[in-house]
Amino acid sequence: MLNLPQWSYSGNHGQYGLALSSIVSVVDYAIVAFAKFFTSVFLARYALPAEFGAFALAFGLLTFYNCLQIGLVGEPLTVLGASAKREHLARYIGIAVLLVSGGAVFLGILTIGILSFTTLGDDDYISQALLALSWTVAPVQLQDLFRRALFAKRHSGHILGNDLLFAGLQLIGLFWIRRFGYLTASNAFFVIGVSASIATVVGGLQIYSLLKPISIFSLHLGTSRDTLRSLWKYGRWSLGSQIAFNISTQGYLYMSGVMLGSVAAGVLKACQNLVAPIQIFLSGMENLLMAVGSQQYTEGGISMLERLLRLVGLVMLSLTLPYIGMVILNANKMLEWLYKGQYDGYSTVVVLYALYYLAFAASRPLALGLRSIRRPSWIFRGYLISAMLTVLAFFPLIHTYGVEGAAIGSVMTSVVFLVVVFVAFAIISRNLHIRERQS
């Protein structure tokens, strides 16, 4: 078991521990995001477009499944477990393990059902990828659950070690199957599943070390019901946000695969990869600044928070605009260089995704501001409206314009979300300024 030093927000570490733990959390996020990004680029470069498209579709479905787990179990466990005593945390983890395990089995069966009762089963690449996905769900979700349980108690060293193990095994496995000529979507999921299984075992041992001698399965009917009620009370809103976010950001990828086939999904994902590093950078920066924004608002009110958000927006856009400009001007060359000519002719899709991420970058300071002033419901509403637009627009756009239509729809949803959070923050901040002046 990886035994890294443990950093914590509490105890004698004080503010230094808070800063160090926050930095480690961002590094850990970068490791997880890089492993996903590298896997996507690696398969897009070395696998056939239809093979990669099948992987992109199946991985998108895995991402949606993970949203269900994170929203209903993972995020509530992180929040509720942070202030819980060891025996209560053990109860939360025990219930969560049972829920995730049962849910993963159901989702695996659901995946096989999707193959049996939809036209996706007619595509050999997609059917093989989804079959491999059906057993990968459980270890991936359990690994994430254990890391969130560790995060609840700020055991950053354990989290970092576990994610390094998962990512390292995954990347080594991908190199291995490519080296010996076995690089397919289904084998890529086999590598992910095995890597997650090993990391899950290690995570279980880390949890045991954290909680011993308390067992996570020492459950009683009455306390289990209370735990389930607590998870549901918090998790139902988190679940709704996760589903709306996934549909608004990934819906066009799913529908392109269903309507146009696995190659279309591969084209969209391969083009998105060129600008995806922006999301890794922005999301990592937002996670780092979340506690800072809340502190600025608490100590200095809305005026101090707005000064921080203007600075954050300036930094984010100054770092993302040059990269977006480079991608737009060199889309054809980047496609040729990165994918060896497999996706030539789709520079328009790359440009559209660059515009998508430009709107995404502009929305991040506003979303950070809404979280800092405790108005996250408006973020949910923004994603919900975007998801509704996706449901309404995907068919005419994809039917008329193909993969370019899917990319146009993604830009539309990102702009709609930006408008919603901009208007919400403008109205709420104006009201807060009025209250401050009156007081």
Q: Please, could you describe this protein's structure?
A:
Helix content is about 85%, strand content about 0%. It has about 450 residues and is mostly helical. The chain folds into two domains: about 1-255, no CATH class; about 275-439, no CATH class. Helix 2 packs antiparallel against helix 3 and helix 7 (about 220-260) packs parallel to helix 12 (about 375-400).
- Indicate the radius of gyration in whole angstroms: 22 Å
SSE class: mainly alpha
Domains (count): 2
- Total E-strand runs: 0
- Overall spatial form: globular
Rounded mean pLDDT is 84
Low-confidence stretches: 1-16
- What is the number of helices? 13
The profile of the biggest β sheet is: none
Helical content, roughly? Answer: over 70%
Proportion of strand residues: under 5%
Helix-strand topology string: HHHHHHHHHHHHH
In a few lines, what is going on in this structure?
With 439 residues, the chain is mainly alpha-helical.
